[in-house]
Amino acid sequence: MDKKLEECFGRTPGNIVATRPLRDGVISDYTVTEKMLKYFINKVCGKFVFAPRIMICIPSQVTEVEKKAVIDAASQAGARKVYLIEEPIAAAIGAGIDISKACGNMVVDIGGGTTDIAVISLGGSVVSTSLKVAGDKFDEAIVKYIKKKHNIIIGERTAEDLKINIGCVYPKIQDTEMQIRGRDLGTGLPNTVTIKSSEMLEALIEPAMMIVEAVHSVLERTPPELAADISDKGIYMTGGGALLDGLDKLLQEKTGINVMIAQDTVSCVALGTGKALDNLDALDGRPRR
Questions:
Q1: What is the CATH number of domain 98-134+206-264?
Q2: Which CATH superfamily does the domain covering 135-203 fall into?
Q3: Model pTM?
């Protein structure tokens, strides 16, 4: 999301509404999503005569109705043909993993709305799951904790700043602090408090453990040969949520498997989708010109 747009949330006047057309990895506002896609298509393609072909990432466990909503929105926005790719597969390609080989690779993609976990072999997902616990849920957990512990209400933007600067899900060697401002529930006036990273650990450990348990569940359903490959190669983490301090250490401790954070982890899904575009003609069944 654009930084300027992100700063608008919670700060708009009555005649302007800042909204998120996508929530939990799926479309929450069809009309706004269509207009957003149309804007992006015009910005990238300009006034082309022919409508473009578009590839869109989706969570691994979306329903057929949700898939159709994505395809319809892109088609109405001006796409000639719409292709869908699962986010873990796109993340694996973006992370530089060769998914075409007959060996298991495990990817944990922690985005804003969903966490997608998949074991990939021969270019497809063998075992996968998707849960609606990711960056947004971490922010919500911080908001609830600050309200309960300090009797102060903060916004999503402040919660995200806390998460990025001092957030952690594994004990730190040295406790760090950060000052925040919010509205005191008792007086109704603005108030400033100092939050420690140990408090963030207390606030974030519950949603983090939900992700760990989902990884454990996928490993339990993984065929033995692929599980052996994952044990040798390790687990790859992608997405902005993978940057949460200590999440890789927590996952490694609970599974006993080496955990690696991919390079340029925030852009892995987008980069992987771009690389997948090179094979669009193969998907159409036509040789590439």
A1: 3.30.420.40
A2: ATPase, substrate binding domain, subdomain 4 (3.90.640.10)
A3: 0.84
